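Course assignment 3, question 2. Fill in each field.
Student: A.L.
Task: Predict the tertiary structure for the chain below.
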Amino acid sequence: MREMSLLFPGGLSKALTLSYDDGVEQDIRLVEIMNKYGLKGTFNLSGGLFAPEGTVYPQGQIHRRMSKSAAYDLYANCGQEIALHAYTHPDLTLLSAGNAAYQIVKDREALEEMFGRIVRGMAYPYGTNSDGTAELLKNCGVAYCRTVEATCRFDIPTNWLRMPSTCHHDHPRLMDLADEFLAKPNFSWSRPKLFYLWGHSYEFEANNNWHVIEDFAAKVSGKEDIWYATNIEICDYVNAWKRMITSADGTRIFNPNSCPIWLWADGKTHKVAPGCQIQLD
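Answer field:
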């Protein structure tokens, strides 16, 4: 049996994505920074908590949700993913199954109507989750859901409905982890890596530390071996990889997906086109 492993699109060995919650005004600046450095990610919104149009917040208030029109203007064409955060941001583990399902489906309906696209990703409100909520999300058509767990690792998720992050942007090892992620292996190839960063953009204002995300973005941007992608792009690609079909001896590989898949086998990078089979040497 041949050993083979996932590579990201283009034959890349690393992927990087961001995830930010609540749809607050500070996302405007964050999106500008992400686009400046070519970073991709996901913004998790509660469709029932947009601020009324014309809301004027008291001086000094940090957590400032955007209005529906402002959110549309920011996210609709910014190149980032829109995902769920439950309709009114409750702790789903404290709700009955029916009420929790309502929160998920209602949020999907609101955001899909608002942005004219299918919404399949999510972040848990407060990060709280359980086996029951994960199963419920699956039944409501959610493909992945982020927790607030930080692993300080770069592993590919094995449970997409209880998905951890590498770290929060305020983690004391953030830049050290970035250096570890960027380091080139001492051999020809290493296992694929995913750096998953999460947070709330209002925290940069609250802590007066916008330099944290600026410095991180500057360090990790523009690398030839990194795929900069949204959460759902990474989830869909990894799941497509898992659908690859191999012969009993591992020498033939068939791609049943509608997208090309890259893999590492026999010391080489291989690309398998949609609907095609390759023969390894």
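Instructor remarks: Residues 6 and 242 are 9 Å apart (CA to CA). The chain has a mean pLDDT of 96.
Grade: pending
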